[in-house]
Structure formats: structure tokens, C-alpha cells
Amino acid sequence: MLAAIEAGGTKFVCAVGDETGKIIDKVTIPTTVPSETMKEVIAFFKQYQITAMGVGSFGPIDIDQDSPSYGSITSTPKTAWKDYPIVQELKKEFPIPIGFNTDVNAAALGEATFGAAKGLDSCLYITVGTGVGAGAVMQGHLLQGLSHPEMGHILIRKHPEDSFEGVCPYHKDCLEGLAAGPAIEKRWGQKGSELTHKEEVWELEGYYLAQAMMQYLLILSPKKIILGGGVSHQEAVFKAIRKHLPEINGGYIALPDLENYIVSPGLGDQAGITGALMLAYKALNEQIA
Amino acid sequence: MLAAIEAGGTKFVCAVGDETGKIIDKVTIPTTVPSETMKEVIAFFKQYQITAMGVGSFGPIDIDQDSPSYGSITSTPKTAWKDYPIVQELKKEFPIPIGFNTDVNAAALGEATFGAAKGLDSCLYITVGTGVGAGAVMQGHLLQGLSHPEMGHILIRKHPEDSFEGVCPYHKDCLEGLAAGPAIEKRWGQKGSELTHKEEVWELEGYYLAQAMMQYLLILSPKKIILGGGVSHQEAVFKAIRKHLPEINGGYIALPDLENYIVSPGLGDQAGITGALMLAYKALNEQIA
Ligand SMILES: Nc1ncnc2c1ncn2[C@@H]1O[C@H](COP(=O)(O)OP(=O)(O)O)[C@@H](O)[C@H]1O
Ligand SMILES: Nc1ncnc2c1ncn2[C@@H]1O[C@H](COP(=O)(O)OP(=O)(O)O)[C@@H](O)[C@H]1O
Ligand SMILES: [Zn+2]
Ligand SMILES: [Zn+2]
């Protein structure tokens, strides 16, 4: 049996399942402090005979296998988890192969394997919720270089009529600072979920997300872009993105059919945990190979 | 013997060499019309016993092996070369494995194999000359998805004091529109090579290139960034980039040591042709495998 953890800032989703993506049992544990949360995580998995584990984690995290802090959550603002060596701690209890990557990379892998990008060798998964994060599978591999990408903080151009200064603590008006859920709430004075009928909210949101997607397209050229997270529940955002993207492109690259290119997650909220299961499966195979 | 072509908008560089990157003979042929240019190209290679060929071409080009127009230069403004099936034409004369990619991807491959990124599994090569183009090797492979990246036309933010509107025919003020050689010449009224002592020119250039590099870093996280092309001959540009990049980053990601991270091509102007030789070598191995 394979074990999967989707380690988020508010909750840990733990599941056991198999390499077909089937989930056999699942539990949700609140993210408090490592001593508490991890105790419950470990207790859950101890019920099963597991052969490998996959962890998709909030970040930033250290995924460089040559680094002494490999397997840690690094500079997170959640102080209790800062520099927490999650993989090493899990290894103590479960001396099995453990795959480790970001939550958004796990979701990208899940979608590429069983979701909206099934059968394609590349896709980009972007989530717009409390923050903005994105991960990519390119040529069949989770994209990784010096570190994992941090695509949520790219620079975009502010709309001339948007006077909101942005909420990113590092950049103020980067993509996350202008377009994540908290930015929407602060700009319009109401939560996104209560703004459904306010057209201009999603029009502006689409304007910013289309800019971001244009950069991803030009730099990566993924075969599918999957938009998830709380904000993606607003159908109007997709419409606005599909309207603005060709304007921003200005006829430069041949754009694919955007209805089929920018889509919702095929796995719904299960993209992350399913991807973590695939991280486990990959870790198992790499160990054997 | 391996054959290599660096197909540029003004000249074709043709070489024969081996898989160690050694070039045995080389010739430069002006880019006029296909019937003329290709006749000389073919005549050069007919002198040798070649087993595989690599072509790094100006673009955009079709590198999708499942596409009917695979191996063509597609929508170039150089009308004589528009839709020219360069790989098919070469195959008629040389029925051998032919690797085909963009000129900048070839340069990235050359640098990753024998140049400034030797020993690393990823790098980004960016050239700033008549245009801006970039290619990347990620996890040992030339980055490719729906198509090859078109990283030269990403959006950047205009400097508040820069009133120049930009020269990109598609976007006006994209990266290429603001920062390529022709933009420099038009903004300042003199060719870049004559502006060496004008500090503000390279300060602004560095401001724009640092923005671009920040996006590449956030989205790809390459292990090295190599800056080539005519404009990179200005040492002041490197200094300005290294100054602006940390400002733009705002303490967000851990930046590598920029002196060793953003560098000149290790192969000088030979990056492209050496990379094309490696494209030939890859094509040969893929054929045999
Ligand atoms: N239906 C909705 N429409 C617009 N915004 C939403 C919606 N649901 C949640 N959000 C916003 O998304 C953010 C939460 O994102 P979510 O993806 O649900 O969780 P998280 O990012 O914390 O994992 C909040 O800022 C919330 O206001
Ligand atoms: N030393 C230099 N300093 C600044 N700009 C230069 C220099 N040399 C060439 N350029 C500019 O770079 C452009 C030519 O780029 P180059 O890389 O040499 O060729 P291409 O891009 O056509 O292959 C021109 O716009 C030229 O003005
Ligand atoms: Zn930011
Ligand atoms: Zn442009």
C-alpha cells in the first residue's frame, strides 16, 4: 500500500491508496505544531502496511537531494514548522522510500497522471487561494532546477485603474500580492465567495491571471494549464482569462484553443493527494531501480 | 563525423566535428534565399562522410515530431524562409538522423555540455542582440512543451522614467521591444556599441534584464544563467543586472551568488554551433536506441 500526505498550512490530508490513484482510506488533521500534527499523521499510517510514501508540502521546502537540509520545510512564516525536517522525521517511523515535493508540484503530477492532463507529457497547475502557487510537469518530469519553482510571485503589470497596492510582504504587487484570495478581499472589502455577482472583480482577476499564464506559456509552453484553488470556483475568472490572453499575446505565438487549454482540475480537490500518491509510487520505483 | 548548422537570420554557420565538441572544419554562408543558401550548405557537407546532423535555427520553428510541418521554419518575417521545410530538404541530400531545435536552445545545450554550465543538469541561455531569445536545459533535457519557449517576449515593467514606447511589432514594450539592440539604438539614437561610456544606458538595460531573469528564476529555477549576444559585450550590463536582481527579489527567494550565477558564455560565440553538434550527437543516439 502507498502512503500520501498533502501537507498544507491549515490541514494535513493523509491517505493510503495504490498506484492507480485509488484512495482506500483518508484522514484530515489540523496543522498546529509538528509534535501534535505529526503524532496523528504517524498514528494514521501505523494502521497500514505501507511500502512507500509521498509528501506534497507547503513551502518553501528543500528538495535538493545533495543538500544537508534535504526534506525540510525551510523559511515558512509558520514558525513552528520553520526548518522542520519532515522527511527525516517520517523516515524514523517509516524506513521506506519517501518522495518529497511541493504541494503544487504534487497536484501537477496528479493532474498529469490521472486528471485534466492525462496522457500529456506536460502541464502547469496553478492554484489561486490563500496564496498563488504553481507547479509543472515538463517532458514527464516535475520541473526542478536550483530549487522548485516559485511561480506565484512573478511580476505582472498593474491595471491602470487598479489603485490597490497589493499585499505581498516581499513585493507588494506581485501576482500573489494582487490576485490571491486575501488581495481580492482587501481590495473589494468582501471575501471572494461573496463577490460572485460583481463582474469587475473577476474581470480584473482574469486580467492578472492571463498575464501570468502568458509568461508561463512563453517560458514553459506547457500542454495544458490547470487552474485550481478557491478563486477558481468563480467561472467568470476562466472567461476573463480566455478573453485577456489573446489580447496580451498580440498575435505573437499560435495560441491553442483556450476552452480546452485552460481548464479546471480533472481531479477536483483530489489533485494534491493523488499526486502525493504518485510521488510515493515514483519513490518506490526509483529505489528499486 | 557529425554535421552542425547554426541557421541565423543573417548567416548560416556550418561545421563538421565530433561528440567532444571539437570542430574540424567550419564555413559561414550568408542567409539570402533558400535556393542559394542551401546549395552552399549542402556543398559544404558533401565534402565529408557525415553520420548525423544537428540544426539550431532561427524561428519560430516547428519542433513537434507529430506535426505535419515538423522540421520547418514557420512564421518568420523573412518571407523567403517562411514555411521552409529545412529538415526535409536536408534529409533529401543526407538521409541520416537530423536533430532540430531553436538556435538558442542549441546554444543552451552547448553551454550545458561544454561551456559555463558544464556538469550542471540545467541552465538558461539568453541572447540579447537583434532580438532577445532564450533557451533552457532542464533536468538534462532541452525544455519543450506545446512548442519551444519564446522567452524573449515576456512582459516586463517599464521604468517610470523610460518614455520609449518599444519596438516589438507584436507587443511594443515587451522585453525584446524594450531591451534588444534595435531598442537601445532607437531609444538613445546611437548603436549600442557606441554607447559604452553612457552609464544610464546599461543601468536601464540591466534593470530590464534583471526583471526578465527574475521571472526565469521564479518559473524555471535554472542552475546557471548565461547571457550572450551583442549587448552582453557591455560588462556594465552584468553589473547592473546583479544590482537590480536582489532589489526585485525583495528577499523572497534565496538567491545564489550572482557573480557565478549570471555569466558570459563559456564557449563565446561557439555556443550555438557546438550545441548544434550536440543535437547531431543526440539524434544519432536516439536513432540507434
Ligand atoms: N468560491 C470562492 N470564490 C472566490 N474566492 C474564494 C472562494 N472560495 C475560497 N475563496 C478564497 O480563496 C482563499 C482560500 O483558498 P483555498 O484554495 O480554498 O485554500 P488554501 O489556499 O488555503 O489551501 C480565501 O482567500 C478565500 O476567500
Ligand atoms: N558591443 C556591443 N555593445 C552593445 N550592443 C551591441 C554590441 N555589439 C552588437 N550590439 C548590438 O547587438 C545587435 C546585434 O546582435 P548580435 O548578437 O551581434 O547579432 P544577432 O542577434 O543578429 O545574431 C545590434 O543591435 C547591435 O547594435
Ligand atoms: Zn510576492
Ligand atoms: Zn514582443
TrEMBL record, chains A, B:
PROSITE patterns (UniProt xref): ROK (PS01125)
Q: What is this protein called?
A: fructokinase
Q: What is its EC number?
A: 2.7.1.4
- Please give the family membership noted in the entry: Belongs to the ROK (NagC/XylR) family.
UniProt keyword Metal-binding, yes or no: yes
UniProt keyword terms in alphabetical order: Magnesium, Metal-binding, Zinc
Q: What class of enzyme is it?
A: transferase
Q: Which organism is it from?
A: Alkalicoccobacillus gibsonii
Reaction(s) this enzyme catalyzes, per UniProt: D-fructose + ATP = D-fructose 6-phosphate + ADP + H(+)
Q: Which InterPro entries has this protein been placed in?
A: ATPase_NBD (IPR043129), Carb_Metab_Reg_Kinase/Isom (IPR051804), ROK (IPR000600), ROK_cs (IPR049874)
Required co-factor(s) are: Mg(2+)
